[in-house]
Design goal:
This protein has 265 residues and is α/β, with parallel strands linked by helices. It has one domain: Rossmann fold, CATH 3.40.50.150. 38% of the residues lie in helices and 23% in strands. It has 7 helices and 10 strands. The strands form 2 sheets. Strands 3, 4, 5, 6, 7, 8, 9 and 10 form an 8-stranded mixed β-sheet that branches. The protein starts with 5 loop residues before the first helix and ends with a strand. It comes from Theobroma cacao (Cacao). One of its GO terms (molecular function) is protein methyltransferase activity. It holds the Pfam family Methyltransf_16. InterPro entries: Methyltransf_16 (IPR019410), METTL22 (IPR038899), SAM-dependent_MTases_sf (IPR029063).
């Protein structure tokens, strides 16, 4: 007869209990893994665009856009931001600066500024880095350059441009070797990491035309003091003069906005 001590019995029970606990944990992990659903990027994309009318002075624009923000996967360009309203208001009152010009816009989004400029400029390139945003941008270009809309007199095109991407910039400058008279940007300074890249891109575009032949008009909306100083610092670091356009400081959507005119030193 084999005699098992009470201590040995307790050790066996403990080992069995540990084994059962481990088995239970394994089953729970397997069940949790089965519950995980991998969602494609498209799941988060809101493309419920509405045809919306905007009026700037005597100019009436129509374009497709969202009515509220969808910021997943960097889709901020799907709606019209306060800075674009500020810039378009300024441009509609100073349309003579656009007359006959060639223009490139950075971070065009749905293209509301380009649509206004198309009434005056002779050549316009609208850019954005996000493929989904480029789809709605091109849709709005098609809408505003149709035979039913005779107000547009400019050649309107859209290209992908990721700030700081040399391949993208070189491709654009190869296609437009003469460069541009104006660079526009509206409400495009809200992410600190992108600001140095923005001014890298602006510097290349300005230097392509040479000092005195091109300027960057930036509609800036203040959301953080750190960003306010960063914009000034980066412009200066890139060898640029940044001047506030007199009379443009105003409140847009409860935020302070201003127009800056930026040129090479």
């Amino acid at each position: 007869m084999c005699c098992v001590s009470q201590r040995e019995t307790m050790e066996v029970k403990s080992e069995v209990s540990t084994f059962l606990e481990e088995e239970k944990m394994v089953r729970q992990e397997e069940e949790e893994e089965e519950d995980i659903v991998c969602l494609d990027e498209a799941f988060f994309i809101n493309d419920n665009y509405h045809l919306t009318t905007y009026t700037f002075g005597s100019h009436v624009l129509q374009l497709f856009c969202l009515q509220s923000a969808s910021t997943d996967f960097d889709l901020t360009g799907q709606l019209v931001w306060p800075g674009a309203m500020l810039l378009n208001d300024y441009l509609s009152k100073n349309a003579e600066m656009l007359q006959g010009c060639s223009m490139i816009e950075l971070g065009s989004g749905v293209g509301i500024t380009g649509m206004l400029c198309s009434r005056f400029c002779h050549q316009i390139l609208l850019t954005d880095h996000n493929d989904e945003v480029l789809k709605i941008l091109r849709r709005n270009i098609e809408l505003n350059t149709s035979s039913e809309n005779p107000s547009c007199c400019a050649a309107l095109e859209a290209e992908k441009l990721e700030w700081g991407n040399s391949d993208h910039i070189n491709s654009i400058l190869h296609k437009y070797p003469g460069g541009f008279d104006l660079i526009l940007g509206a409400d495009i300074c809200f992410q600190q990491s992108s600001v140095p890249l923005l001014f890298d891109t602006v510097e290349q575009l300005l230097r392509n035309r040479g000092s005195g032949h091109c300027k960057f008009i930036l509609a800036y909306v203040s959301r953080a003091k750190m960003m306010d100083s960063m914009v000034i610092t980066e412009a200066t670091r890139h060898g640029m003069l940044i001047n506030e356009v007199s009379g443009t400081r105003s409140v847009v959507a409860n935020l302070e906005g201003v127009i800056f005119e930026i040129t090479l030193c």
